[in-house]
Write a structure and sequence with these properties.
Two copies of one chain form a homodimer. Chain A is α/β, with parallel strands linked by helices. Chain A contains six helices and twelve strands. Chains A, B: Its EC number is 2.1.1.193.
Amino acid sequence: MSDAKVRLYVDQPLGAGQAVALTADQAHYLFAVMRLGAGDLVLLFNGRDGEWRAEVAASAKRGGTLACLAQTAPLQPPPDLWLLFAPIKKARTDFIVEKAVEMGAARILPVQTRFTNAERLRQDKLHAHAIEAAEQCGATFVPEVTDLQQLDRLLATWPADRRLMWGDEGLAGQTASLPDLPRGQPWAILIGPEGGFAETEKTRLRALPQIVPVSLGPRILRADTAAVAALTLWQLRYGDWA
Amino acid sequence: MSDAKVRLYVDQPLGAGQAVALTADQAHYLFAVMRLGAGDLVLLFNGRDGEWRAEVAASAKRGGTLACLAQTAPLQPPPDLWLLFAPIKKARTDFIVEKAVEMGAARILPVQTRFTNAERLRQDKLHAHAIEAAEQCGATFVPEVTDLQQLDRLLATWPADRRLMWGDEGLAGQTASLPDLPRGQPWAILIGPEGGFAETEKTRLRALPQIVPVSLGPRILRADTAAVAALTLWQLRYGDWA
């Protein structure tokens, strides 16, 4: 983080000489919590213009201004990979979002399955959680978190060119491997709910032309473990770890 | 889990016709929480004799007896892989132990580094957490969780034949790959603390003949994410996912 103590996401344009107005929350965090003052450095990113070093130009109780100095990293979007997951208990749902950001998913899609129990999913909170994870892990990109969608409906209009990797428990113990395909293609990973998929859902998934079933080892993984393991497997094979 | 609703670790011998006496805690869980009664089925494992189907022979308020019927799975120990990690906040430490069990580590070693803050690590609680994870993930083995040890001292007597895989942040962005070595050899994975290693520690690690530095992708991973990702990478290359 060089000499800047804070890395902050802002929903504003960044560029040489650009002034960035702070929200009241951001001002509170920078000036009251982190105790920054005029001239102190901050790293900024907005998901579009890379990462910029900025300095505090003016600070106030409920606002303030930063001035962009120089770009410190270009925009590095993750590969075109979506993560679909069935939300679980709140703490683990937050973890999955955090891990999807760290592991480099481009889009996070919570899905409702037969055995999903998630009436009260707060998309805005999950989005804030994704931003926080991006601030922490040095990403210059923040994946979109969509609203909860019915898995059924999503599959009914699934893009023809987007492969769907699925940790099929029926393959437990078989070799974990992905087919030999070119990189740079659109993909998604589907992580099931704690209770597993219903039989009708499994039948539906197996019949999907875009499906790529994969084994995730001989033990049963919790959803959040499975998400990180599947993302690792994919990134090693087709993504930005290779 | 077939027709058994409960999978339970017991620290007692298992075998055909073997009677298993329950502790007060186990009796409370089976009879009060899960409401099992005489003749109901339970799956048992002890980390040594595989998994056994057993039935409730006698139930009481503070005890009871199960009778082993038949083995349902042989003992499947994980590969000879240790996970060393610097404990962090309690919730994430618990997660790392849980994930190490699911991902198949044979031994879990919390280590004290320069930047580790973990005076109050409860080895007994972490061991109980490992047992719970094994009950959940279908493992027939429970990794040992050692007491907190100084990393320095551990490295001073590090076994000559045990390679140590280390997610070196200095390699961020390089290709994540492990050398072409035969399987079945002793290994360990080292996951650093949130604040990273001190420079003196990095120098020490890089000079260790058994060290195998590896990149874990272009983003900075939290310790618990890094643990799952590193375990996935290793299991795919040398372990029981391959």
